[in-house]
Amino acid sequence: MKPLLSFFSFYIKSSIHVALGVTGLVFVTGTEYNITLPIALYWVTFLGTVTGYNFIKYAELAGLQHKSLIRSLQNLQVFSLVVFCLLVFFLTQLDFIVLTLLGVLCFFTLLYVIPAVNHKNFRSIAGVKVFIVALVWSGLTVLVPVYYANSVPPDLWFCFAQRFFIVLALIIPFEIRDLPQDKSVLVTFPQLLGIQKTKLLGGLLLILILLLEGLKQPFVLSKTAPLIIVCALIAFCLYLSRVEQSKYFASFWVEGIASFWAVMLWVTYFVLA
Fold it and tell me: In the list 175, 187, 219, 264, which could disulfide-bond 126, CB 3.0-4.6 Å?
């Protein structure tokens, strides 16, 4: 039992779980717009997400404990190095324009950690953090895959806005969990609005997502039904969100919603069909 728990802990801490979710959202976009995406793009999305998240989470910690790294952090560093090498390999299989788009998103990710504005990084600037995360996720999972389409879909920006709002809503349980630890200068949603009003904000975002879906043409039930289920699951997680929540409520269950969305679409389009 202990080895299994250790593996699960590494699975979460190494950002594999969140990377699967981001990769799943690329699959969602490809399926919704009937775009055949290269396998290399899925690998770059997965490996790039692992690399980016681990860099953000552990770079500063590694610097502070440079001479006495704990074993778990050493394992994460070795894993991240292997992942980065694989990432470079798959990046060589993508064309220049995609690499340029990915480079812009990588730049925003670096600014999330590296001080750039008044000696502050985006993570420490009041009210900016969640919007940068949502922007990068939306760009990576909507704009990059759509590049492979022969023409830009007329509802592209509706889809981009939906994805942006979904990521914001998914972040809310994390912000509620981290409320006691977050510095007041961050001005997170719970700090600014309180927990209950933040949950209401999340509900409004979900309503906006569904309203935007109604504006898309043509209406396709096989695409809309999974989205409704996803919004319902996020709403349920928002309702359950507390400061004192179970260890893996946000980092496993909430982050797993994106992967579940991809699985639903896969079953709908490639199994049931």
Answer: 187
